[in-house]
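Lecture 7 notes: from sequence to structure.
We start with the chain below.
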Amino acid sequence: MKTMIYTPNETQTEYNLAGSLSGINEVQPQEDFIMHPTIDVCFAGLMDNPTVRKGFCAAVMRVKPEEIEETELLPTHLHREYADDKLGILDVRVRLKNGIQINMEMQVKKYPFWDERALFYLSKMFTEQLREGEAYGRLKKSIQVSILDFILFPDDARYYRTMHFRDDETGKLYNDKMELQILELKKLPGEIQAGEDIANWMRFFNGKNRKEFEDMARVDEYLDEAYEALKRLSADDEKRLEYEARAKVLRDHINMLEGIKEEGVEEGRKEGLEEGRKEGRKEGLEEGRKEGIQMVVRAVGLHVQGMTDEEIARQCNISKEEVKGILALYKIQGDFF
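Predicted structure tokens for the same chain:
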């Protein structure tokens, strides 16, 4: 058994949006092409396989796969029900034989208000179990599993965590029927301890070439089946077209967000320099840079929530013309959000 202490370096603590889809732009020969499970349509395709689904659900539940009697794939869709989901979120919902529900999603970028969104969909999954007039005692445990190809918690090296409702003072568990699991792929250490099933699955999902997938396939029969399923998906011409189209949508959206970030830096630099000249403050440049980024990102976040230009202008304390300029510059349309 090997024990590794992992300390993320400075370049890992800040999520690089464009880097999350690295390798997907590269043209691979037909015989070498292999999908990346971090693209959600590939992840969903893997979960269509009952053996793969059973193995991963067992890791999520922290039990042996033999203890998972049955997994039922529930109907789901690329939902665009709310303003922040106009890009479309492809999730996978599974119900176990004992009624426990698990909703899984693969994310390559951090959404505005990501925390609130995760809580919302966990709560929605929990409450949707009951029809009108049914007793609360029928409610079963609901688990939201977010597999992230970015770093959400930069202040520690933990790549896997679970969250519940607990007493603020004593830490005592209040109820375990709502659970949030967060898997940060960017934090995976170079080596993992034997027996860490969830880490093995994370390593598989994070694979970038056939050699890495082959290595993980040797761990157990479930990961081996996952690799076989991945090869079948990659060899399917129709699935490959769907995969490449989805990767392009995600890549375009990420590039747009990078542009917004750069625009915020430039706006902040100008404002910071001007304020620094007027007030003689040394911190004017850095302060203005931060405020500029926050202003642009906030304006975009309010836009995707459905606010009008006038409302965004009031909230951000900028003119309506400036709002229109930000949105027009980056062509913020439904195809991107």
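Points to note: Confidence is low (pLDDT under 50) at residues 1-20, 78-87, 330-337. Strands lie at 71-74, 78-79, 89-96, 101-107, 142-148, 160-166, 173-184.
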